[in-house]
Amino acid sequence: MNRLIETGDITQQSLERLSLSTRSIVHASDHYSHLMVFPVRVFLALVFSLVCSTIVIANDSVLDPYNAYIELYQQPSDPTQISIAIKDNIDVAGRVTSGGSVALKDNIAIRDAFLIKKLRDSGYHISGKTNLSEWANFRSNDSVSGWSSLGGQTLHPIGIDRNPCGSSSGSAVAVASGLVEVAIGTETNGSITCPASVTGVVGMKPTLGLVSRSGIIPISSSQDTAGPIGKDVETVARVLSVISGLDESDPSTKLIPDSMNLDFTDLDFRENLSDYRIGLLTSGLDDPDGARRLADLKVAIDTLNGNWVEPIDERVYPGEAEYFVLLYEFKVGLERYLASSKTKEKKLSELIDFNNRNKQVVMPHFGQDIFLATEKAAENPAKYQDSLIELKDTKKQTLAIFSDNQVDVLVGLTRGPAWEIDYAGGDSKAIKRAKRFGNGGYAAISGLPHITIPAYQIDGYPVGVSVIGRPWEDLLVLQVAAVLETFFRARFPKS
């Protein structure tokens, strides 16, 4: 798609008009589905696929109707190799790492990221680079998740007028649409678990430090991590086992306990939770649909003989402090990455200038207010230190929920269903009109392991269930998730 844009065969604007027009057709078909016979709906789907396939084939790619990929590579010559998709903020040697931005369209990676080397050494085939929210949703507060200036809009595979969430949207959609069994995403706050939840797949944000960030375009040294998104818990566990471990170039990995078993594949797919004490998180209780699903979740845990308690949760989310920490750390980390990359722009200020010079392509929907705020935040190290203290206090409060209630894991709804794509107001306005609940933020701030698994639906769209654990208890989180997955699959099989 992007090659067509570069050669002038088709414009960014015309592609977006095409996407919007097609989206309107499919959206209308959903509204009038009760009047339509099955073949009509199939015909509309085929029209959309044909349009998209025409674009993709012209780009020497295979069929990718939901625009999950920025770039697809050749299929593996060895049919036994497992293909894995990689978010396009992770370095793959000899390939472009763009972060979704046309500013980095020529940034050919010199070497593999640490986790990519580990995947190759284990026999995985890199299938391509997935689309993402540009700069991992860290360019503007009015950004649209799943949209990037280089990759366009990633579409939700159930309803293309719905947002697949960000910023690992392409990775989640590649799995949800059946293009691959597993992909790698990255998360600062919700960018693995949110797209996995809203598209109905499994997503794992590991304990901070379990997976190296070397060779990944950064946002925050305090919160960034990479993790797998897959078709099931077993697949995610297998990939996490491969990519975890010590990397001398990433100090956070040196915190991995020496005694920690990094093989996460020894899961017991039992039919009960009797060995675990569970803390039930009640985010969503104020929403009628959320309350019903929470009631269903209680029944599920009871059916599995789980011992659960509803902890008193008086935490106040430190949104302002978190935002400032991310602003401050972004500039430092990004410029360190750019310094050793094949990019013309080496400073954040130069990227800002690039965006201003290329507004029509880079900023047709939203600006770069976060970039500008980052430049200003870098001048206030005292506020940064104060904000870090506030986040550490929040982590203590979160860990206290475990100890005070003697629970092994926290379980709750991951977040509400996918919201509508809104280019006029961005996610910030669209989400206000949607069902707003979720449990991922505190896990992200605290560096805790967090997995989401498909469980329910609201308004026909997936809603995941989260399992959150203490630091380095990733295996325990996977184990509880495996039991819940077995339960949900037996009772709510995919049609």
What fraction, in percent, of the residue positions are helical? 40-55%
Count of helix runs: 16
What's the CATH H-level superfamily name of the largest domain? Amidase signature (AS) domain
Q: Might you state the CATH topology name of the largest domain?
A: Amidase signature (AS) enzymes
Mean pLDDT, nearest integer?
88
**What is the class of the largest domain in the CATH system?**
Alpha Beta
Helix and strand element order: HHHEEHEEEHEHEEHEHEHHHHHEHHEEH
C-alpha Rg (nearest Å): 21 Å
How would you write the strand order of the largest sheet? 1-3-2-6-8-7-12-13-11-9-10
Number of domains: 2
The count of DSSP E runs of length 2 or more, i.e. the number of strands, is 13
Q: Classify the beta-strand content into a percent band.
A: 5-15%
Low-confidence stretches: 1-61
Give the biggest beta sheet: 11 strands, mixed
Overall SS class: alpha/beta
